[in-house]
Amino acid sequence: MSEKVTVIGSGFASISAACYLAKSGYEVNVYEKNAQLGGRARQFVNQGFKFDMGPTWYWMPDVFERFFDDFDRKPSDYYDLERLGPAYRVYFDQDDYIDISDDLEEIKQTFEQVEPNAAEALSQFLKKAEKNYEVAIKDLVYQPGLSPLELVSKDTILEVPQFISTIHDVAKKKFKSPRLRQIIEFPVLFLGAKPSMTPAFYSFMNFADLSLGTWYPKGGMKSVVDGMIQLAEELGVIFHMNANVSKIVTNSDQKVSGIIINDKEFPVNLLVSGADYAHTESLMLKENRMYSDAYWKKKVMAPSSLLFYVGLDKKVKNVLHHTLFFDVSFDDHAKAIYDNPAWPKEPLFYASFPSITDESVAPEGKEAAIFLIPLAPDLEDTKALREQYFNIIIDRLENLTGQEIRSSIIFKESYCVQDFKDDYNSFKGNAYGMANTLMQTAFLRPKLKSKKVKNLYFTGQLTVPGPGVPPALISGKLVSDLLIKNN
Description:
Strand content: 15-25%
Helix content: 25-40%
Number of helices: 15
Distance between the termini: 15 Å
CATH architecture of one domain: 3-Layer(bba) Sandwich
Largest sheet: 7 strands, mixed
Low-confidence stretches: none
Structural class: alpha/beta
CATH class of one domain: Alpha Beta
Shape: globular
Radius of gyration: 22 Å
């Protein structure tokens, strides 16, 4: 009889782990708190509109390919991908924007039009970024974070200076134009830290952005989740929804013996939690926790977000599928997230209009719109504040794109700090996990395996390798490899 593994949560990391463990012969049961699988990558459906509630960017397609290849499958076996061209638009002022092409040579020409010699500067920058990507994928992100020695190789030793300088330093050195610097700096926001706090080595995110491209899975990121769930079920994984784990029971041998769901105890042999790390440990006695409340309070968390899901009764003009609004101070907004946590006076924001690409996510002639404002975690979250900031960004959207929007709103739903806490037990209501700063990278992140509870493991964006969907897939593989090795 095969050994049993219990997995808490059904986000990307949990499903990934479940797939690898089932492939290795374990009997895997996944318990999801909510009524829908996918963790943050759930879908909101209303009046024929469909919205990705969490991730909307599909970057690093090679990581997805590697995941499915481990099971002798391809992404195309489960969902259809389209490379977006242009990839996205960045607004800096009214009728002042830059479109990032899906062709690298065209991107270089765009940079050159903004600043003389910027094409060559971008070529040099991306050459280094590509090398960083190769080192990251080969030597770093697929490491379990057990020891600093994992970072030591002939390639990584050569890159030590890049862990001392920052993305901000490099962008400032390479480009004079503030607009080009912002385009270079924005991808690291997906890592959950300011560019001035993110090691220059993470320029590999720029290679993922500008060279590997921005893709869209038809039906949205939910189709990726559905594909992974289908794969998991093909491998024998069993999913349970509306199953909120309220307690982890340990025995005198310092092992998990069971979990409490809806006042009923279920026996556990091996436990993997893809739920929020800090929350998972709070379900145990204090003496069984690796990290104290004081530890978590000191950590730099990635941002939370204020999101709006909006149904419009007309098509929107002068925007692309992904559109960034950087018409206010990038630095001031970053300070409001990381330095002096507060609601930003003038927020940057991001808008996604998936129905521009995919007619299946909105009724004919209508537009599905998703808006996101990055926020400091644990801020006050009220209906009045949400409404205030919705009006701010709609005013800006109308002004910058030269069109009236408000009268076309059929409905809007919001999602913010308190919702992240309620739905995902997210520490401080963060949206992306723990920031990938220098002191929170690799072996310095919370461990995949508990040192106090023998059969307890963790996966997801608060452990290695870090925030984002591709890292979540990798985290699932790392924890499954570790569990298999130890058992």
